Structures are given as C-alpha cells and as structure tokens.
Automatic annotation (TrEMBL):
It is found in: Cytoplasm. The keyword NAD does not apply. It catalyses: epoxyqueuosine(34) in tRNA + AH2 = queuosine(34) in tRNA + A + H2O. It is an enzyme of class 1 (oxidoreductase). Cob(II)alamin binds at residues 64, 141, 159, 176, 223, 248-249. Pathway: tRNA modification; tRNA-queuosine biosynthesis. It comes from the Bacteria. Its EC number is 1.17.99.6. Binds 2 [4Fe-4S] clusters per monomer. The gene is queG. Its cofactor is cob(II)alamin; [4Fe-4S] cluster. [4Fe-4S] cluster 2 binds at residues 205, 221, 248, 251. This is Epoxyqueuosine reductase. The active site is at residue 141. It comes from Alteromonas arenosi.
Length: 380
C-alpha cells in the first residue's frame, strides 16, 4: 500500500483504465471537475422550467456543476461507459404494432443503477488498495452531477443535439457512471463533436421535445412523461406517446452513429421475456402483486403500479379498437385510483371515436358502391 506522494500518476491512470475495463467498462476516461462553463446553460434550462416536476433539479441548482461540493477534496472524475444494447432489441416490430407495448431498451433488463454502481465501487476499492489515501464516491444517475458534461470532458464522447452522450464507436446505447476521487490524475482530452448539420433526432421526436440543439424540454419528453411525471399526462400529448409505456428511444434509433453500435455481452441487460414484446392488454391485466413480481430488480418498478397502469391506458387509447383492448380497459376501471380512471376514460373515448370513424368510412364506401352501381345501370 502506497501514498500519492510516492506513485507515478501516469502509470496509475493507465492502471485505473485497465482495471475498469477488466470490470466490464468499455471506456474509462478521466476529467477535472471544473464545470463552470456549463453553469449558465444549466441555469437557463432551470429558469425556463424545462425540468418540469423534477423539483430536485431546482433544489440542487448549480450544485450539479460543482462536483467538488459533493465530495470535499475531489480533484478528478473517472467517467465510464457501459454498453447495454441487447442482441434481441426488436425496436421496429414493437413500435410498428400499436397493440404491443414499447419499453425503452435500457429498462428491459436489470436495474442499471445497481449493476454499474457496484462495479464503480469495486474500481474505487481497487484504487484505494493501491493508494491508501484515496477517497472516492461513485455516482450512477443518482445524485446532482452533470454526468454528460463529465463524460464529455473525459473523452467518452460528445454531447449530441438530443443532450445524450454520443460516441463515434458506440453511438449512445450505453450507461454512464462517475467516480469522484481526490487524486490529481492526468486528464484525458475531449473528442470533437461530429453531429454537424444533422438534426435527425430533433425531427423524429414524437412530441418535439428537443426545442433547440442540446436543449430538451422535459415536460414534453416521453421519457419524462411516462417515468417522472406524477399525476395526469397532458391530454394534448397522449396521442403522440403512441404505444411507448416506459421511456422512448426514437432520438437514438434515428441517430446515424447508432447504426453499428456494439451489442452487450452482459446477461443482466438481456430483455426479460415477461416484458418483451407483450400486448398492452396483457400488461394492463396485471395486478399490483404481479407488477411487483415481474419488475423486481428492474428500473421499471420505481414508477409504481399507478403510473404503470396510467401509461398502459394511454397506450391502449392509441391502439386498435379490439375486444381485448376494450375488455382490458373496462376491467381496470376502479382498480387503482381516480387518476388512472381518468386515463382509462380517455382511452375508451379514443377507441369509441375510432369505431365511429371506421363506421363512417364504411357508410361512405357503401354509398360509393351504390353510386357506382347506379352509374353502371344507366350506362347499360
């Protein structure tokens, strides 16, 4: 065991990256913790109210841009990338079928917070075993830290126009984690942004939540609406959500850098069959006990049963008017609370309107057929 005064910091940094990769991280970078250049953008974002009901964002304020205040003595952030794209993603088939539930691909496996944080803790312990004076703290989307800014400074990638971190070799199908540490390690250099004039992510967004390059209005983002939003989902956005009942991947699906993104070999992120490509009606029928059982160890559990039912009700309102879908909604009425019932009523109204429109089209077609037949008789 040694102290920082007697160690080669360049060699230590190389070792840290090797230890991180041995733990399963695909990329390990090191940055300083000066995020002053990000404070103004963060402040404008908060002042615009783009954080919606995420009051913790405002509560912590500019602390997010000041990592050293989270862990006194912090000098560096070790940023890591952990790929999660499963081989059996089935993006297109699930999105194309309005009666099938679409769940963001990061959420189909095990809760990433636990997986990545455990590995970061192991990395910190390994460093401390090497340098006895090491003090560290791991973060995985669990504290007021600007993780994308730190990843950018550490050379993991650049911040795309959808506000996610992009890597030329890995796209954006990866989790980020940070290890704040009190060692004056040599830092890595940021990579050059390569989005250029591409605005595909902004164009594809179903709710147009990317209001400007690098700026997302969370209040319109489907991930926010289905995960963070408490209570009613605004009616004017419900139809735009489609069958996305937990999160949204559209801005990543259309990104050119994701076309050849690497596939994870970690079984923790293989889709659970109980969640993958399931009919909305089937998921709506789950009792709360079944919901808790089927989402144990999953990030989905954090939204709770009421939001789960609310989200599926919206999905069913955007689905086809079938007997299964109607029955699932009617049977769920009164099961949870008034908020969920409001969304069920909305869904039933949407399906009724679809039936009426279909009937009107049929009547118009029947009139057209009769008109054609009359014309044929006259011509005869």
């Amino acid at each position: 065991m040694t102290t920082i005064d007697s160690i080669d910091l360049n060699n230590l940094a190389d070792n840290i990256k090797a230890w991180g990769k041995a733990l399963g991280f695909q990329h390990v970078g090191i940055s300083d913790v000066d995020l002053a250049q990000h404070e103004a953008h963060l402040q404008r974002w908060l002042e615009a109210g783009y954080h919606g009901e995420m009051t913790y964002m405002e509560t912590h304020g500019l602390l997010r841009a000041r990592p050293a205040e989270l862990l006194p003595g912090t000098l560096r952030a070790i940023a890591v990338r952990y790929d999660y794209l499963p081989p059996e993603a089935k993006f297109a088939t699930d999105l194309a079928n309005p009666n099938t539930a679409y769940i963001s691909r990061y959420a189909l496996g095990r809760d990433y917070h636990k997986v990545v944080r455990k590995k970061l803790k192991q990395l910190g312990d390994r460093i401390k075993a090497e340098v006895s004076t090491t003090n560290f703290r791991p973060f995985v989307d669990s504290a007021p830290v600007l993780e994308h800014a730190l990843a950018e400074k550490a050379g993991i990638g650049w911040t795309g126009k959808h506000s996610l971190t992009l890597s030329q070799e890995a796209g954006s199908w990866f989790f980020l984690g940070e290890l704040l540490i009190n060692l004056p390690l040599p830092v890595d250099q940021p990579v050059e942004e390569q989005c250029g004039t591409c605005t595909a992510c902004m164009t594809i967004c179903p709710t147009q939540a990317i209001v400007a390059p690098y700026t997302v209005d969370a209040r319109k983002c489907i991930s926010y609406l289905t995960i963070e939003q408490d209570g009613d989902i605004p009616e004017d956005l419900r139809a735009l959500i489609g069958n996305r009942i937990y999160g949204c991947d559209d801005c990543q699906l259309v990104c050119p850098f994701n076309q050849d993104a690497p596939i994870t070999t970690d079984a923790d992120f293989s889709p659970r069959q109980v969640l993958m490509s399931k009919p909305l009606a089937e998921l709506m029928s789950w009792t709360e006990t079944e919901f808790l059982q089927n989402t144990e160890g999953s990030p989905i559990r954090r939204i709770g049963y009421a939001r789960w039912q609310r989200n599926i009700a919206v999905g069913l309102g955007n689905a086809d008017c079938t007997e299964d879908n109607l029955a699932a909604l009617r049977q769920a009425k009164g099961r949870v609370n008034a908020m969920v019932d409001n969304h069920i009523d909305w869904a039933l109204e949407q399906l009724a309107a679809k039936t009426e429109r279909a009937a009107m089209v049929t009547r118009q077609q029947q009139r057209l057929v009769r008109s054609i037949r009359k014309g044929l008789k006259r011509d005869a």
